[in-house]
């Protein structure tokens, strides 16, 4: 990677990190507030003014600073570009949790180049946590306890692991109850956090794996580079790294064991 390309990544990462904090402020103005209002999108999912305002904020920042970059956002779709870079935005991941007053929602921002994330930020404003990474710069985790390096947990026996995953109802809706049964029988504990916080827990070593499905690109894009820089990997359930329809985030040393469970 050339010095110029590294500089271009760093410039975009700096904007992503600053924007995620501002997006968090937008969300927190409505969080657990009587002023919260919702509407339903065509797919039946819930959206709030904060979702749209947060994505608009970042799109305006990108237009001012990197006008030739492409953008893919949950609320306003795709905008083409010709720079080779694409921003992927989920202004509030876990909008249902956000509306219900549950603090696991996040502001997710990724920057891609050639189809792979090269910078990513996952900001959890209600928890005062943020996890971020960029290529060859490591992964970092800021919490109320301060700033530290984000690292996946070391390998242990599969029977002693804790896995973050979806609810049994979600497995049932997607026809994947067999996978849940295998996870439950071969690991120590499963937690159904659902939102992006499940990926953050594993990327920071507080859980051993995150297993997910039924998501969009903006739900997982920042975690590609976060896991990579944290010493892990984000793949599908078979180990592939492109066009994910399912997701497994774990350490490289435990990946094969979890793939066998999910096969």
Structural description of this entry:
There is one protein chain. Helix content is 36%, strand content 28%. With 263 residues, it is an alpha+beta fold. It has 2 domains: 147 residues, Fructose-1,6-Bisphosphatase, subunit A, domain 1 (Fructose-1,6-Bisphosphatase, Chain A, domain 1); 105 residues, D-Maltodextrin-Binding Protein, domain 2. The strands form 3 sheets. It has an 8-stranded mixed sheet with strand order 4-3-5-6-7-8-9-10, with helices on both faces. It has a 5-stranded mixed sheet with strand order 12-11-13-15-14, sandwiched between helices. The protein has a two-stranded antiparallel ribbon with strand order 1-2. Helix 1 runs antiparallel to helix 2.
Structural class: alpha+beta
Low-confidence spans: pLDDT under 50, at least 5 residues?
none
CATH class of the largest domain: Alpha Beta
Number of domains: 2
Order of strands across the widest beta sheet? Answer: 4-3-5-6-7-8-9-10
**Cα-atom radius of gyration:** 18 Å
Note the overall shape: globular
CATH architecture of the largest domain: 2-Layer Sandwich
CATH homologous superfamily heading of the largest domain? Fructose-1,6-Bisphosphatase, subunit A, domain 1
Give structural attributes.
Fructose-1,6-Bisphosphatase, Chain A, domain 1; 2 domains; alpha+beta; globular; 263 residues
What is the fold's blueprint, element by element?
Blueprint (H helix, E strand, L loop, with lengths): L2 H28 L8 E2 L5 E2 L1 H17 L4 E4 L3 E3 L5 E9 L1 H6 L5 E8 L2 E9 L4 E6 L4 E5 L2 E4 L12 E3 L3 H6 L3 H10 L2 E3 L5 H7 L5 E5 L3 H13 L2 E4 L10 E6 L3 H8 L1
Parallel strand pairs: 3-5, 11-12, 11-13
Antiparallel strand pairs: 1-2, 3-4, 5-6, 6-7, 7-8, 8-9, 9-10, 13-15, 14-15
